[in-house]
Amino acid sequence: MSGHSKWATIHRKKGLIDAARGKVFQKIAKELYVAAKSGTPDPEQNASLRMVVEKAKAANMPKDNIQKAIDKAKGAGENEHYDQIRYEGYGPQGVAVMVDCLTDNKNRTASFVRSTFTKKGGNLGTDGSVSYMFERKGSIVIPNKYDEDEVMLTSLDNGAVDVENDGENYNITTTPEDMLKVKDALSQIGVEEFLESEVTYIPNMEIEVDDEHKEKVLELIEQLEDLDDVQSVYFNMKD
Question: Superfamily assignment of 83-132+204-235 in CATH?
Answer without folding.
Answer: YebC, transcriptional regulation domain (3.30.70.980)
